Structure formats: C-alpha cells, structure tokens
Amino acid sequence: MYAISLGDDGAELRPLEPWQAGEFLAHIDRGREFIGQHNGLPDAVTDLASSRAFLQAYAEKAAADTGRIHGIRTDGTLVGAVILRTMDVAQGNAEAGCWLEPSAVGKGLVTRAARVLIDWAVEERGIHRVEWWVSSTNAPSIAVARRLGMTRDGVLRASYLYRGRRHDEEIWSVLAPEWRAGKGAARSGSGDRLPDGAPVHGVCTS
C-alpha cells in the first residue's frame, strides 16, 4: 500500500479501505465529541458494522470514480481523513471535506492533505471546480478553505439542520486555473501527488 509523505513530522496520507473498519472506528471513538461538533460522521459510525459500511461506500465510490477517502496518519496512527465526498468527472465538479481527532489539531495536517487530494483531482482527473461546504460557525474549517486559496461563493442561510439547530452553510470553491496559478505557494514545497489511477478511497472539522 502506498503512503504519501505530508512533511518531515511523520505525517502521511494513505488509502482507507473496508478491511480497516476496526481502526477507523477506534479513530472516530477517540474524536467522537470533537468531530461531532460540525460533522455528522460520529452519528453514522457507531459500531464495527457501520464503520465497515461507511468505508465500503467509499470503496464503491472509488470504483465508480465518484469519490475518494484517504486517511491522515501521524507515526502510523490514523488521526483524520480527507475526502472527495462527491466527484463528477463529466461535469468537472467535486466536493472536498475533512476531519481530525483532537490530538492532531493545530499542525496543518488538513491543509497539507487536502492540497494533495485537490491537486490529484485537478491534475489527474480533470476536475475544474472543487467545493468546500462548511458551517458558518466552523472557523477552523473556513481558515483551511482560505489557506487552500478558495473563494467564498455565498452563504445558504439556515440550510443545514444539525442536531436540532439550523446552521448557515458557506460554499467555498477553487477553480482549476486558480489552483494552478497559486499551487507553487499553496503547496509549500511539497511535490507529492496521488499515483495516477490509484484506488484512492462531510463538513470539515479541523
């Protein structure tokens, strides 16, 4: 299995697959309360069966070329993930997302990992527009969108019902020409990419 270095601190990006359901569940359990502030994943992944089903859904997306999931690891331990929640190659559109458990926050891991995934989507799969949907209350995720060179397209007022409350959702995006124009600075010197054709497998919490 391949691993992509995210820097000199032992952080790596690797595929996540259904056979890793136990490890994925343990990761969600460690960050359940923190991740669940803005992300419904902990409500969906509650036991081994639901963990396997979640990863299987992304394996099927990868097979259909409609989505991807990659785990973020530090010193071999799974601490988060970046995803292409949706990917429409024909239309050239995709939606990226992420999450981290608390121990991994504040190290720039999501930004570094998202750069690799977005670069692969743009350069290898021909995606023209990558979106980032985020609650207006999720300041860390909005900061990631800015660091990725995204532009805020607009706000969907009270569009997201989550745990009994309605939240405003912001839509941020970066277009392929903008990505390429800013890639040298944005990638902070990292030259790694996802392997072409590799079987890479919601709202961001970072």
UniProtKB/TrEMBL annotation:
Gene3D superfamilies assigned: 3.40.630.30
Annotated transmembrane regions: none
Class of the enzyme per the UniProt entry, highest EC level: transferase
Domain of life assignment: Bacteria
Region (Disordered): 184-206
Keywords for the protein's UniProt record, in alphabetical order: Transferase
Listed InterPro entries: Acyl_CoA_acyltransferase, GNAT_dom, Ribosomal_N-acetyltransferase
Domain N-acetyltransferase stretches: 11-177
Entry EC no(s): 2.-.-.-
Sample GO molecular function, one term: transferase activity
Protein name as catalogued: GNAT family protein
